[in-house]
Amino acid sequence: MSTPKGAGTGSFHADTSDSRQERLRKFLMRNLLVIVTAVVFVMTYLVLGGISSDRDADLASQRSEILSLKGELTMNEDQVHSARGEAVEEATGGMDLDHKESDDKAITALMRTALTWNGLSEYLDHRDEIMKTYGFAEDSQFMRVFMPGEKEGMQRTAPSGKTYTAFDKDMTSEFVSLNSSVTGVAGDVYSYFSVVEMRVASGSGAASSTAYVSLSYDMIDEKPGNLDAYTIPGGVERSG
Predict the structure, then answer these.
(1) pLDDT tens for each residue of 127-152
(2) How far is residue 224's CA from residue 191's CA, in Å, rounded to a whole number?
(3) Is the dihedral of CA 8, 10, 11, 12 positive or negative?
(4) In the sheet that 172-186 helps form, which strands lie side by side, from edge to edge?
(5) Is the pLDDT of residue 3 over 50?
(6) Residue whose C-alpha is closest to residue 225's, from 234, 233, 235, 215
(7) pTM of the full predicted structure?
(8) Beta carbons of 118 and 174 less than 8 angstroms apart
(9) Can you list the positions of beta strands (E) in the chain?
């Protein structure tokens, strides 16, 4: 006798005579691979989603920590600057560090103009510019002794009292640096003594040599007053 279709042992096809439980068992067995694949996919999605969520949370936490550290660094830099300024004020009888830095920038701008030129013509142009910008009188020590004009024969007088001829028309000069020291504080008026380094040469392409300028001055609203300047420039000392 032949076995009815679908009723053989191990068959996963549903038969009309199968109970509900048997039909469910056969359905699950027929679609086992699909079901397992779906379960694996769902679990993988959930796991990866959890990992991604954790990673996003970690990155957000790290960004927050970085921003916090940047804020602390800025605050610490401000505190260091403030502490340094307070230490300088205490050591110098109330000198404000920012005030001195502003004064140094102003006097450096003046001396850079006074000491950086190429030849006599440019020197005289810078001389006129300084007189107009800073209001220095022709007979002031700075203009008469340190930056003399053509009427004075381009002579300069050293602190020793010796007089030097200035320079020939091809002489060049270059500002190098300025180092200042506070000698007095009276409210907002600071007094200074500074040493300026410069390089001079007898002409374009000639070997240059180092010279120094000494300055004493007051700074009032970032403008120099009572300015005295001395140097020994290139040139030949007069014998008479």
Answers:
(1) 999 999 999 999 899 998 888 876 55
(2) 9
(3) positive
(4) 117-118, 172-186, 189-201, 208-220, 223-231
(5) no
(6) 215
(7) 0.55
(8) no
(9) 117-118, 155-157, 163-165, 172-186, 189-201, 208-220, 223-231
Q: Round to whole Å and give the CA distance between 97 and 199.
A: 29
Report the Cα 170 to chain-centroid distance in Å.
37
Q: Return the bridge partners of 173, or none.
A: 117, 200
What pLDDT does 171 receive? 81
Q: How many residues does the chain have?
A: 240
Strands, E assignment, 4-152: 117-118
The widest CA-to-CA distance across the chain, in whole angstroms, is 151
Give the residues across from 184 on adjacent strands: 191
Residue 2, SS3?
coil
Residues 34, 27 contacting (CB under 8 angstroms): no
